[in-house]
Amino acid sequence: MRPEAAWSPFVGTERSANMENNENHKATNPLTWQTEPVWDRLSADERQQMMAFAEGYRRYLSTVKTERESVEYVEQRARAQGFAPFAEKAAQGIQAGDKVYFVNRNKAILLVQVGARPLAEGISLVGAHLDTPRIDLKPNPLYQDEKMALFKTHYYGGIKKYQWLTIPLALHGVTILPDGTVRRINLGEAPEDPVFTITDLLPHLAKEQMEKKLSEAIEGEGLNILVGGLPAGQGTGGAAAEKEANRFKQAVLEILHRHLAMTEEDFLSSEWQAVPAGAARDIGFDRAFVGGYGQDDRVCCYTAAEALFDRAGGGRTAAVLLVDKEETGSDSNTGMRSRFFENALSELIYAATPGGDRMPPELTLRRCLFNTKALSADVLAAMDPNYGGVLDERNAARMGFGVAVARYTGSRGKYGTSEANAEFMAEVRRIFQTAGIAWQSGELGKVDQGGGGTIAQFLAIYGMEVLDCGVPLLSMHAPFEVAHKADVYMAYRAYKAFLEGDG
Fold first, then answer.
1. Has residue 424 got a pLDDT over 60?
2. Residue 83, φ and ψ in degrees, nearest 5
3. CB of 302 closer than 8 Å to CB of 308
4. Cβ count near 392 (within 10 Å)
5. What sign has the CA pseudo-torsion 157, 159, 165, 167?
6. Which protein family is named in the record (predicted)?
7. From CA 67, how far away is CA 87, in angstroms rounded?
8. Looking at domain 43-131+293-500, what is its CATH homologous superfamily?
9. Average pLDDT, stretch 439-466?
């Protein structure tokens, strides 16, 4: 019997005791603030919408595992929703109601729905990042050792290295041949595909390893991926066969040449990522959670894009910005610190302004950026009953209680943060309350425990209003992260309400 037949999430439309208790609490003590589970706030129809939305997200998460795949997916969805490449629209001029997008080197994308109000008045922006922690191949990765073929790697972003051992890995990426031909690899996802793995030491011989700190037990140079174990050719037999060098490496090269027309040198112009193989899954008897790789921060990318696609419109221009390299500091020409966002806005301003009405373009751009209001859509740490000691329980986000806002991120003394001011916080509260959004407040951890940042600080340098707002996660940065479906749905609704606002 299928689980959903016995454990349907749609059973029961009665008002819960928790909902009544919370409403009674508000009636008797209106001075306090008490959050409640999202499920208790939803009607039967809304619960079905929540589950249906989460299923679409789960399918997306199962197939989209790199920045390039994310941009390609969002671009295809945008075209289906009536968006066009900016260059196709710019020639005849940009007008209110137009839907356009900009792509930066297949690793970042800006979606824009143009409003009637002048761009100098600013835009409503939701920004997120497409990149996720993973294992990258080194430029010259393939080698042979102990009659096995392996890949040398360089991990990307903040990972716990031990979590990546002994799990099935898939290879996603592209190889660009010298003539410009693009060869794609996506191997390890289909049931009939082989997978790859990083081996670990058996516990019988791991005495020294297990006495080390977790951060030192596995070295970065030890994250080598097993990719082959059969030799090339027939060999010559006996001792002579042992002298033949690199037959196992050669066998892998022959397979790659046969399927991708590449040689070993072509690894230099390749971007291959090793990611956890397999689909995202529902978690729990009640299917309350989604588990899968890359939810930091693709859960916010998906919900933000879908929010813009479903936006009812408004006088203010609305945009969703999805960028690369946040996990390594937002650098590079596809990260938030690049000029992609500025350049795209400059192009939009020029194309949307009649020649006779143009003020100096640089001034219009600066006014637009300064007057923009933005949500930095990134995940937060959720309260985990197994590790409650690292979070301040009075200020921690909780699973299933809605989208979480963070006034500030950074670490310890608020270093490396963008802190939203009280006025903008009040404005976002009003938007969420008016739209009936279930939301909560969260932080990344106790003051001296650690911390982290988002793209908010790089948006804030333009003078715009910025607030961090995203989905709480369990097991953040692990190969298998966990989100609550109610929080995913409320993030979508929150971003949609914000993008529809004209404040």
1. yes
2. -80, 150
3. no
4. 14
5. negative
6. Belongs to the peptidase M18 family.
7. 22
8. Zn peptidases (3.40.630.10)
9. 87
**With contact defined as beta carbons under 8 Å apart, do 290 and 479 qualify?**
no
State how far the alpha carbon of 260 is from the alpha carbons of 153, 175, 252, 466, in Å. Answer: 21, 8, 12, 45
Give, to the nearest 10 degrees, the angle between helix 485-500 and helix 44-63: 100
H/E run at residue 48: helix 44-63
The closest of 283, 240, 195, 338 to 482, measured between CA atoms, is 283
Backbone torsion region of residue 414, taken as left when φ is above 0, otherwise alpha when ψ lies between -120 and 50, otherwise beta: left
In whole angstroms, what is the distance from residue 217 CA to residue 103 CA?
A: 41
Q: CA angle at residue 37 from 36 to 39, to 5 degrees?
A: 135
| Model pLDDT for residues 212-250, shown as the tens digit of each residue | 999 999 999 999 999 999 999 865 555 455 557 899 999
pLDDT on residue 28: 61
User: 71-108: per-residue pLDDT in tens?
Assistant: 999 999 999 999 999 999 988 889 999 999 999 999 99
Taking the domains of the chain in order of start, what are their residue ranges? 43-131+293-500, 134-276
Q: Which two tokens stand for residue 474?
A: 């369990």
Q: Which residues is 405 bridged to in the sheet?
A: 441, 469
CATH code reported for the domain at 134-276: 2.30.250.10
Residue 357 clears pLDDT 60, i.e. is over it = no
